Amino acid sequence: MRSDTGASTVEFAIVGTLLLLLMFGTLEGGRLFNSWMLITSEAREGSRWGVVRVGDPAYSDLNVLKSDVEEHVRARTSGLLDQAPAVFNVQATATEEQVTVTIDYRVSMVTPIISGIRPSFQLRAASTMRSE
Q1: Distance, CA of 35 to CA of 30 (rounded, Å)
Q2: Burial state string for 4-34 with b = 16 or more CB within 10 A and e = fewer than 16
Q3: Neighbours of 120 (CB within 10 A)
């Protein structure tokens, strides 16, 4: 009669690897979803904040408006997102009185198993609002 201790070790190695892959995949998926929700919310907030100020005489120069919208969004995401991989693009038009905020953000994977498969994901969120 043979012992089954070796077979159970092999089974645990297979199941344990799949369990770790599932667990780390869920963790990274949650981080990706959180980052996507955050940049989507902040793109909306930035375009909303900017479109309210389109008719303001203090913002007659659209470059000032663009830089202030970017500063506003960066201040709101400070501490929540790593600012280095975030690219903010703000477009404002005086004739149509609309503001578009686009945020491109690269999320790096932190778990070794997932980062070996795909080291980072590029996320994009955009929002356009028009003054009415």
Answers
A1: 9
A2: eeeeeeeeeeeeeeeeeeeebeeebeebeee
A3: 11
Predicted structure pTM score? 0.81
How far is residue 33's CA from residue 89's CA, in Å, rounded to a whole number?
A: 21
Question: With contact defined as beta carbons under 8 Å apart, do 120 and 106 qualify?
Answer: yes
Q: Are the beta carbons of 104 and 81 closer than 8 angstroms?
A: no
Domain span holding position 38: 5-130
Q: How far is residue 92's CA from residue 39's CA, in Å, rounded to a whole number?
A: 19
Rounded distance between C-alpha atoms, residue 36 and residue 86, angstroms: 12
Give the integer Cα–Cα distance in Å for 99 and 16.
Answer: 50
pLDDT tens, 67-90?
999 999 989 888 887 877 788 888
Torsion of CA 7, 12, 17, 19, to 10 degrees: 140
